[in-house]
Write a structure and sequence with these properties.
The protein is α/β, with parallel strands linked by helices. It has helices at residues 15-26, 38-42, 63-78, 104-113, 123-126, 130-133, 150-162; strands at 3-7, 31-35, 82-88, 95-99, 117-120, 138-143, 175-182, 204-206, 218-223, 235-237. It has seven helices and ten strands. Bound molecules: zinc ion (ZN).
Length: 239
């Protein structure tokens, strides 16, 4: 199986480069690496014209729209069986797999990578992102603010090349589904715990906090299969 690992879709999220660096030293023929947005990385900015991870399936002349097109064409010629897209977050998650669908192949890969949880993002949010282009064969890894060490980069590279499952995780990996956003005025944002039930929000916050996003306080998830919807005033349901 051939795996493509992509880092630096967001120029200010450089931890993925460490993982790519580790992978490159291994020169494993089944692992292809790609640094997505070199210019944004050099400028230490999330993006130059517009968010690259919202630029797939966008027609336009922004740097990111052209870059997205070039990434897709490179992937077409590399023909990977699976794509791993690495991100970081200032929220308190450890390592979470954000998935575009719950295809068995994706769930198995997330388990092999040793994630804390699997979070399904709705199509309306992944449509313009990289993983939205490969809904059956990709996932994003999101590392929280305390997860940046050289040791971890080495471990993740090891798991990618050998698919070693994390020892503390078994088959009871929770799958969550994002279905709403948390509004920026929620007073509890500064002390929020990701993927821990929040009584006020009546759901599981994800990538939430005062500074994780410009316009929203983060996402709200429920456990997969649970149709329950929060009625909190701080929650905006995505239809
Ligand atoms: Zn990112």
């Amino acid at each position: 199986m051939k795996v493509a690992v992509i880092a630096g879709i967001h120029g200010d999220e450089v931890f993925g480069l460490k993982i790519v660096g580790e992978l490159d030293q291994r020169s494993d023929q089944n692992v292809i690496t790609m640094v997505a947005h070199a210019e944004a990385i050099a400028k230490r900015r999330r993006y130059v014209d517009q968010d690259l991870n919202r630029s797939f399936e966008v027609i336009g002349e922004s740097k990111e729209a052209r870059l997205a097109k070039s990434i897709k064409s490179k992937l077409r010629s590399m023909r990977p069986d699976f794509i791993i897209d690495i991100h970081t977050s200032v929220s308190d998650v450890s390592c979470v797999a954000i998935v575009p669908s719950i295809e068995p192949k994706i769930v198995v890969m997330a388990q092999a990578l040793g994630v804390q949880a699997i979070v399904l993002m709705p199509c309306m949010l992944t449509r313009r992102s990289l993983i939205g282009q490969y809904p059956k064969t990709s996932l994003s890894l999101e590392f929280g603010r305390r997860y940046r060490s050289d040791k971890l980069a080495k471990e993740v590279a090891e798991r990618i090349t050998r698919c070693i499952p994390f020892k503390q995780l078994a088959s009871d990996l929770e799958i969550y589904e994002v279905y709403a956003t948390i509004t920026k005025d929620y007073p509890g944002l500064s002390r929020i715990n990701s993927l821990t039930f929040d009584k006020t929000l009546e759901g599981f916050p994800f990538l939430a906090g005062p500074t994780t996003y410009e316009s929203i306080g983060g996402f709200l998830a429920r456990k997969l299969g649970d149709q329950y919807q929060s009625k909190s005033q701080y929650v905006a349901i995505m239809e």
